[in-house]
Amino acid sequence: MSKQEYISRYxxxxxxxxRGQASWAxxxxxxxxxxxxxxxxxxxxxxxxxxxxxxxxxxxxxxxQNNKSTGVxxxxxxxxxxxxxxxxxxxxxxxxxxxxxxxxxxxxxxxSRVPKGTEHIYGLLHAIKNKFVVEIEYHKFYEEKSxxxxxxxxxxxxxKGRWYLLCLKVDANDIRTYALDRIKSIDIKKKRFSAxxxxxxxxxxxxxFGIITPDWGSPExxxxxxxxxxxxxxxxxxxxxxxxxxxxxKEETTFEINVFITDDLIMELLSYGQELxxxxxxxxxxxxxxxxxxxxNKY
Length: 299
What we know:
By secondary structure, the protein is of the alpha+beta class. It folds into three domains: 97 residues, Arc Repressor Mutant, subunit A (Orthogonal Bundle); 75 residues, SH3 type barrels; 78 residues, Alpha-Beta Plaits, CATH 3.30.70. The strands form three sheets. A five-stranded antiparallel sheet has the order 6-5-4-3-7, covered by helices on one side. Strands 9-10-8-11 form a four-stranded antiparallel sheet. Strands 1-2 form a two-stranded antiparallel ribbon. A hairpin with a 6-residue loop joins strand 1 and strand 2. The chain is globular, with a radius of gyration of 23 Å. The termini are far apart.
């Protein structure tokens, strides 16, 4: 069995237990069914299943436990852990489906704008997990030449189809965000680093839309109206985790989010065009008005 088939089996087990707890007999029956559907042999012994549980925990930080009194298996994780794992699992599910099938190019179409720099993700994740210092060759958009940068890598974040690296730039001793598509090469050093206890990695991007984290000001309570059609879209795909509905009618919905006002946020709000009305704060209203006036003056 290939490594890809092992990963496929792990995903089948995870996705099945995501639905709810199940006995070993239930899991085995499900593996048999999936084997018939796919043409691969996913049927295993209960002893191999125990090894799979260990591998799944290592790969995805997904803890499958067994209730000794009832004999059922279940995934034990908090709501925060579910949120952290769901996007990674979605990516693996898509990759796995495409890797194990042939001649599906006529039935699936990706964006023509393919994100670059993903070849560095595996190496960077290895360095992050093991706290290895990394030297990257980075080429800024507005510079003619690349620069060599020594970093302590902390986190990889996706935003609007692009991938970014949050890290400490060692010589400047400050936090930076680098776009993976601008990284030309990485060199993982044998030297290890110790993350600062004062740096709150888990909450670093709280109240941020995108990857810009201002070192000034504070988050603003932003209230805006959206026409019913567009409001349905962001109900199902919220702009931010702080998003909540204040008022709703047949014509429009009033939303509130609590975030920093950044260029990333403004660009997103402008994308809704005439369907959107900013209610507050006034500083954001003025910025939106100024931008729209400048656009109109070009025509």
